[in-house]
Amino acid sequence: MTVSIRGRLRRSAGTIRPAPIRGVAGRALARGCNDGLVDEAAMPGRTRIPQIIAHRGSSKDLPEHTLKAYLRAIDEGAEALECDVRLTADSHLVCAHDRNVNRTSNGKGPVSTLELATLEGLDFGSWKLAHGGEDEMPDADHERDKLLTLSRLIEVVLTCGREVGLVIETKHPTRYAGQVERQLAKVLTEFGLQGAYVPGRPHVTLMSFSQLAIARMRQLCPQVPLVYLMKNSVPLRFRDGSLPKGARIAGLNREIVRRWPKSVQRQHDRGNQVYVFTVDEEADIDLCLELGVDAIISNRPAFVRDRLCVRD
């Protein structure tokens, strides 16, 4: 089997690219950025090629979870877009990390108590300076600075001109509990994305820090891959590389990987994949490559892409 790695990285920023490399075996390809072909069988000891997932879009430079942040990430070659979803008071799933809108908009209050029409009237973009050293706010781009619904984000990836995945995190605890996962399954079904991966269509992955949410998603969308997220340390019961039933991907915070790098191999020994978040610095990218993780979740997708080539 031969793979043009540089070609893969180039095509991911264009309009046409092959289907993403999926699965533990599929990602165990030799990493390289030369213009030739790399023989997989000839280099069994080389590191994997991690998938590049844009964390809330290209959110290092642009306001998180906004249309312009996601469009930038697609232009920069991200292979998948990560988003957090919350339910509004009128049962719409919107892309928002925080419980409240205070930090990321000119409004106030919990997402769960506000209706979509109210949220869409807020400015979610100009809170973030265009350039760190400037005192003035940039001009608002109202369409691209609006709060995104999950449905709108799905429409973006369906029409962006190449195959881009979605990695969707449900946030808990929340007053709506399991209604979040039920509404998520409903939205995915409306777009025909609730089943197994189909080449040419967005590859969807669901994730949560909540084991209960993982169990719900396993029942609602049994064919969609599940990521169990772990932040500060690996829970004792999962330190042998196991995961909650139905999850086959471990989502490890970069601090876990720094302190307990053997956690990656334990997961791989069990046949699981490993996604690492949030990876924005060279040292962490290099560590992920050395450990052979399956995906890097980053606020800086272009930076990660360039680092993959530099390391070759």
Could you walk me through the main structural features you see in this protein, from its secondary elements to its overall organization?
The protein is an alpha/beta fold and 312 residues long. It is built from eleven helices and eleven strands. The strands form two sheets. Strands 3-4-6-7-8-9-10-11 form an eight-stranded parallel barrel, surrounded by six helices. Strand 4 (80-87) and strand 5 (93-95) form a beta hairpin. The longest helix is centred in the middle third of the chain and has 12 residues, at 179-190. The two termini are 19 Å apart.
With strands numbered from the N-terminus, the spatial order across the biggest sheet is 3-4-6-7-8-9-10-11
CATH level-four homologous superfamily name: Phosphatidylinositol (PI) phosphodiesterase
The CATH architecture can be named as Alpha-Beta Barrel
Low-confidence stretches: 1-6, 14-46, 130-138
Give the C-alpha Rg.
19 Å
- Helical percentage: 25-40%
The end-to-end distance, rounded to whole angstroms, is 19 Å
Q: What fold name goes in the CATH topology slot?
A: TIM Barrel
Give the beta-strand count: 11
